[in-house]
């Protein structure tokens, strides 16, 4: 070893102290190569830092995925767009990049009867947005309403809502199952109003707006909530037969479906104001 060599033990300690685990793991191998191949010092430093940054980004996305509560199996790759011809794959792929709609806090609404893939599609968008660097929370609507109600009871509602601000997107699954008795304290409305034009929501519901009267305490609040949600929104009406039922009957009759999607008619409504 040359007399200019640095104490390896101290190097490890410093990298640990600075929380640079990737550099701590890689430097011995990189340093050896660098010595052997006569790298410039900047090349060695640059290579180590780039690995540290790449690993850090990967860990960050893993953390976001873990906190999202998204079902890991419900992704765009496992979603068959051929089953919902009114949902344009191209449109969904554009939403999956996030950029423009998340920045203005716009809403995506997925309507349709049970089993048509609303939760799956919502989840799939969530995964894609996490891959793109955004933070997403998937929750059943009734569950988040319960949590926010508990927060309100202990006078913590504002801070609970503020904590949810870290999510670029909250997916409220099954809005129409949130019951009126739950809604009495209107926390769902407060969540919608709080995020309006700032932070996005994706909502799945078995019933379109006409069936939402049971979700909010009074008709005035229902109208006010819908008004905010549709202001900047994309609505997909997924009025097809249940995927489970169709795949079950496909298996029985041995029919094969060809999954094609990009050439289908656009069935989404985009509203901006
Ligand atoms: P919904 O939320 O509309 O009630 P789900 O998203 O829970 O329906 O879908 C029911 C089941 O069918 C899930 O296992 C889901 O993964 C599957 N499924 C539904 N639609 C599709 C689709 N287009 N491609 C692949 N799987 C689908
Ligand atoms: Mg569902």
What do these coordinates show?
The protein has 273 residues and is α/β, with parallel strands linked by helices. The protein has two domains: 2-64, no CATH class; 69-244, P-loop containing nucleotide triphosphate hydrolases (Rossmann fold), CATH 3.40.50. 51% of the residues lie in helices and 11% in strands. The chain is built from twelve helices and six strands. The chain has helices spanning 8-17, 21-37, 41-68, 89-96, 99-103, 118-131, 141-153, 157-164, 180-183, 187-195, 219-231, 243-253, and strands at 107-111, 136-140, 169-173, 200-205, 233-237, 268-271. Strands 2-3-4-1-5-6 form a six-stranded mixed sheet. Helix 2 (21-37) packs antiparallel against helix 3, helix 3 (41-68) packs antiparallel against helix 6 and helix 7 packs across helix 8 (157-164). The radius of gyration is 24 Å and the shape is elongated. The chain starts with 7 loop residues before the first helix and ends with a strand. Residues 255-266 have low confidence and may be disordered. The chain binds adenosine-5'-diphosphate (ADP) and magnesium ion.
Supply database-style keywords.
273 residues, alpha/beta, Rossmann fold, 2 domains, 12 helices, 6 strands, binds adenosine-5'-diphosphate, binds magnesium ion, DNAC/IstB-like, Transposase, IstB
Q: Which fold name corresponds to the CATH topology of the largest domain?
A: Rossmann fold
Spatial shape: elongated
Count up the helices: 12
Q: What is the gyration radius calculated from CA atoms?
A: 24 Å
Q: What is the succession of H and E elements? A: HHHHHEHEHHEHHEHEHE
For the largest beta-sheet, the strand count, sense and barrel status come to:
6 strands, mixed
The assigned CATH architecture of the largest domain is 3-Layer(aba) Sandwich
What is the percent of helical residues?
Answer: 40-55%
Q: Tell me, what is the CATH class of the largest domain? A: Alpha Beta
- Beta-strand content bin: 5-15%
Q: Give a count of the beta strands, DSSP E runs of length 2 or more.
A: 6
Lateral strand order in the biggest sheet: 2-3-4-1-5-6
**Which class of secondary structure composition applies to the elements?**
alpha/beta
Total domain count: 2
Organism: Trinickia violacea
GO molecular function: ATP binding
Protein name: Transposase
Region (Disordered): 246-273
């Amino acid at each position: 070893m040359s007399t200019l060599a640095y104490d390896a033990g101290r190097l490890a300690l410093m990298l640990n102290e600075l929380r640079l685990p990737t550099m701590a793991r890689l430097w011995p191998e990189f340093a050896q190569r660098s010595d052997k191949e006569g790298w410039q010092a900047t090349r060695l430093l640059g290579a180590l830092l780039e690995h540290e940054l790449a690993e850090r980004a990967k860990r960050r996305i893993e953390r976001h995925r873990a906190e999202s509560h998204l079902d890991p199996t419900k992704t765009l790759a496992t979603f068959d767009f051929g089953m919902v011809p009114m949902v344009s794959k191209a449109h969904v792929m554009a939403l999956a990049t996030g950029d423009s709609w998340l920045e203005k806090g716009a809403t995506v609404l997925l309507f349709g009867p049970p089993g048509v893939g609303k939760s799956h599609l919502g989840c799939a968008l969530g995964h894609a947005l996490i891959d793109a660097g955004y933070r997403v929370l998937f929750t059943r609507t009734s569950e988040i309403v319960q949590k926010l109600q508990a927060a309100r009871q202990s006078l913590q509602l504002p801070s609970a809502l503020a904590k949810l601000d870290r999510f670029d997107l909250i997916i409220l699954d099954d809005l129409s199952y949130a019951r009126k008795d739950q809604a009495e304290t209107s926390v769902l409305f407060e969540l919608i109003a709080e995020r309006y034009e700032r932070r996005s929501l994706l909502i799945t519901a078995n019933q379109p707006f006409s069936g939402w009267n049971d979700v909010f305490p009074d008709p005035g609040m229902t109208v006010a909530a819908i008004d905010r949600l549709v202001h900047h929104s994309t609505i997909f009406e997924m009025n097809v037969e249940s995927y489970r039922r169709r795949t079950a009957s496909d298996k029985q009759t041995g029919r094969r479906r060809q999954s094609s999607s990009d050439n289908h008619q656009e069935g989404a409504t985009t509203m901006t104001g």
